[in-house]
């Protein structure tokens, strides 16, 4: 039997996310933007809620293409508020547009969002060695620093806990527990 992190349920969607995405380093700007937006949407909710709606989010937000999102009209925002396939929270929906603007400014300034965001971990994933899920933090000094900088750069829904979840999801930190089969896979040199 395959051993996974204790937070993974028997749901196939959850298993696939854990086994193929969570903790795997991501350097693609569009994918990084998607994950930052989805982590923000998760605020106050469970990741499972967002994961189940992920495909709806991609469709609703033009596959997280920031260049399209920054052009959203009030009419488009109103239609998003009526979209039952996503979390219909006005502030969270508007934050995606705000974040798209900041994201494009960061790309322009740093050459890519990936260059900007990966500098927080000196361009190398942090490999933790947690033996149990209880040891895994929900935030740390690094996520505090990232949150503060993202907010300074105009991003919304980027608190420290959201930033830490984001870092986990895109492989900036490997928080698979050491008994999980993915731990070794995500600990290899990139």
UniProtKB/TrEMBL annotation:
Q: Which EC number(s) does the record attach to this protein?
A: 3.2.2.20
Reactions catalysed:
Hydrolysis of alkylated DNA, releasing 3-methyladenine
The record's Pfam families line, in alphabetical order, gives:
Adenine_glyco (PF03352)
MF terms (GO), sorted A to Z: DNA-3-methyladenine glycosylase activity; metal ion binding
> Mind listing the GO biological process terms from this record?
base-excision repair
Q: Where does Zn(2+) bind?
A: 5, 18, 176, 180
Which keywords fit this entry according to its UniProt record? DNA damage, DNA repair, Glycosidase, Hydrolase, Metal-binding, Zinc
Q: What class of enzyme is it?
A: hydrolase
> What does it do?
Hydrolysis of the deoxyribose N-glycosidic bond to excise 3-methyladenine from the damaged DNA polymer formed by alkylation lesions.
Protein's UniProt name:
DNA-3-methyladenine glycosylase I
Q: Which organism is it from?
A: Clostridium carboxidivorans P7
Identify the taxonomic lineage of the organism of origin.
Bacteria, Bacillati, Bacillota, Clostridia, Eubacteriales
């Amino acid at each position: 039997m395959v051993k996974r992190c204790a937070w993974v349920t028997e749901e196939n969607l959850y298993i696939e996310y854990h086994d193929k995405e969570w903790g795997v380093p991501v350097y693609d700007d569009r994918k990084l933007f998607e994950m930052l937006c989805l982590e923000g949407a998760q605020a106050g909710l469970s990741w499972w809620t967002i994961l189940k709606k992920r495909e709806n989010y991609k469709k609703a937000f033009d596959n997280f293409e920031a260049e399209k999102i920054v052009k959203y009209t009030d009419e488009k925002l109103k239609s998003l508020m009526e979209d039952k396939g996503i979390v219909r929270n006005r502030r969270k929906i508007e934050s995606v547009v705000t974040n798209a603007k900041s994201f494009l400014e960061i790309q322009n300034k740093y050459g890519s969002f990936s260059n900007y965001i990966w500098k927080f971990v000196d361009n190398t994933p942090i490999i933790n060695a947690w033996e149990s899920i209880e040891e895994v933090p929900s935030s740390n000094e690094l996520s505090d620093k990232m949150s503060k900088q993202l907010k300074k750069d105009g991003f919304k829904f980027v608190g420290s806990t959201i930033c830490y979840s984001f870092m986990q999801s895109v492989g900036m930190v490997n928080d698979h527990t050491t008994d999980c089969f993915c731990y070794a896979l995500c600990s290899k040199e990139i």
